[in-house]
Every structure is written in C-alpha cells, then in structure tokens.
Amino acid sequence: MAMRIALGHIDAYDDRIGTFARQLGLSGLQFHSPRDLPGTGGCWSTAELAALRRRCEEAGLRIEGLENVPAAHFFRIQRGLPGRDEQIDGFCRTLRNMAATGYDLLGYNWLPTYVWRTTMDAPGRGGAAVTGFDLDRAAAGNALAGYKLTPDEPITEPITAEQSWAHHQYFLDAVLPVAEAEGVRLALHPDDPPVEEPLGGATRIFTSPAALAEAWRRSGGSPAWGLDLCLGTVSEMAGQAAAEEIIRTLGPAGKIFYVHFRDVKGTVPRFAECFLGEGNLDVPGVVDLLDAVGFDGFVIDDHVPALVGDAGTWSDTSAEAYISRGRSYAIGYLQGVLDARGR
User: pLDDT digit string (tens) for 128-157?
Assistant: First the structure.
C-alpha cells in the first residue's frame, strides 16, 4: 500500500470515533492500549480482539495496528523483575491471538517509567495548551504520573543502561521467534524524552539515532522487528538532522513500520510540543525523504495541542476529548502535505 494517514492513538472506540474518522476522509485506525482490550487474563484475548475488529469493519474502517499492551502486562519485562517470564508468556499469547484475529502489527515501548513530562499545560501558539519537558525540573516528578501506561509501582533499585539493554535483549530473544512464526511485526518506540539522565530510577537507552541503529543490529535482522518512528521524540533528540539520519539508516531496509507525526520546539534537555509546521522539523521535507527511501506504511497524528474549547492534553482519554480541534488541525495539515506531493 502507499503512504497513507490513519486516525491514531485511539484510547477507546465508539461510534463517534468512527464518524470522526469518516468525516476526515480516513479509512484506517490505530489503537493505543485501548480500553476495548482490557486483557484481564494477562493477554489480549481472541474474543476482545475479534470484537474490536468487527466493530470497526462494520463501520467501514480497517485497523492498521495496535500499540502498547497494558502496563500490568509489561512492566516486569521492562524492569527485569521476577515474574517477567510469565509476562513474556502473556505477551506471546497476545501475539498468537492477534495473528488468529487478523492483526499483524504491535508497537511497544521500552520506558520503565513511561513518557516523562514536567508540565502538561505549557502555553503554545495563541495560548494553546501543550506539554513540555525541562530536565532541571524532572526531579520534582512526572507530570504524567497517573496516566494509564505509567506503572503504579515505583522503581526501588536503579536500572542502569547496561541492565536495560540486557533486559531488552532477553525480551527480543524470547518474543521475536514467536512474532516471526505468527507473522506479527513489533515496532519499537524511541524513548521520550531521549535523555541520558535516569528518570524515576531508570536510565533510558533508545535516545539517539545510533541507539536505534544498535537496536536493529541486536534484533539479528529479524523480519519481525522494526521502528515506530515517533518523529516528535526524534525531533527532541536533534531536530531535522536526527530525523534524516534515522530515516536514511532504517528506511531503505524497510525497518520503519509506521510513523507518529508530531513535533516540538527545542531539543533535550528542554522542549515543548507544538503545532506541525512551527517546530524543528521540515514536515514536507520529511515526507519527501520517507517517500524516497520507499516507506509505504501509515502515518498517524499523535500528541496534539489543545485549542480553545478542547479538553487538556493527555489528561482526558474520552471520545469527547479525543475528537478535538487540535487533532483535526494535525490531520488536515498532514493531508495537505501529502496531497501536495501526490502521495
């Protein structure tokens, strides 16, 4: 298929979400640890996966992929804690159940303390609310604490970079053979924010283009491993230069499975999210480069500013908050860029 836009980062599906997608001219959806998949048995079951697919298809919409199993299914794997083998078994059951119900893509993150922000309502353009990060303020805690993918259990023993690499390799060695056998692709999300300093007791490792290339190397060339290219996180690393390096390195090998399209102003150690077109990235140039390296997957909107009348960013995952002016702006902007380039 050609490069295309899907309605992404959906936390829960209902008829309003489907109507919103169709009104925007979209036919594909991507889900983000949705409430529709509670996974009460330690994995996503075939029954709940099939039910979600059926509801979307009845509305004329296809599911492009899923990302992020619940934190309760994954945090022991990320942290190398006792019980990780049981969670890996559940993850593999999820892969098998996905394959049995027609899903072929699952995004994952390697963030033991999840995404970290120091403010959720920084003033953006025209007073729009955006999230921000300032390393000097990170010791005060994560402003995203309480979000559904932020584990409830604090880290009691610090996790070093060497330990995190080892934990990630243990995970890959266990799950990639299953993913390959089932025909399900796994897509790694870069670390957000991409800082070397520990956050909440965990050192982050996927913080640079070189680290993502190393992750590819450590996958052993598995066809089941690739990248969820979160351009906002990559922009946090080094702006346009980082985006171009990653696309040129992993793109020609077909290792960019899908794209989160957002941006920031500034780079680590401090940045703020922003509207597409006003941040670090040359958005049309990024689209051109993706096309040049043969990317033919889907791109999604991701974090968006909260405009006047919108609910706050991240804090509300209801359908009412999701169907926002900020999201409509982001998707319309991307549609304009892709249309102008005949994509």
Answer: 999 999 999 999 999 998 888 888 888 999
Q: Summarize pLDDT for 317-331 with one digit per residue, the tens.
A: 888 899 999 999 999
Q: What is the CATH number assigned to the segment(s) 4-340?
A: 3.20.20.150
Confirm whether pTM is higher than 0.70: yes
Q: H/E/C letters for each residue in the chain?
A: CCCEEEEEEECCCCHHHHHHHHHCCCCEEEEECCCCCCCCCCCCCHHHHHHHHHHHHHCCCEEEEEECCCHHHCHHHHHCCCCHHHHHHHHHHHHHHHHHCCCCEEEEECCCCCCCCCEEEEECHHHCEEEEEEHHHHHHCCCCCCCCCCCCCCCCCCECHHHHHHHHHHHHHHHHHHHHHHCCEEEEECCCCCCCCCECCECCCCCCHHHHHHHHHHCCCCCCEEEEEEHHHHHHHHHHHHHHHHHHHHCCCCCEEEEEECEEEEECCEEEEECCCCCCCCHHHHHHHHHHCCCCCEEEECCCCECCCCCCCCCCCCHHHHCCHHHHHHHHHHHHHHHHCCC
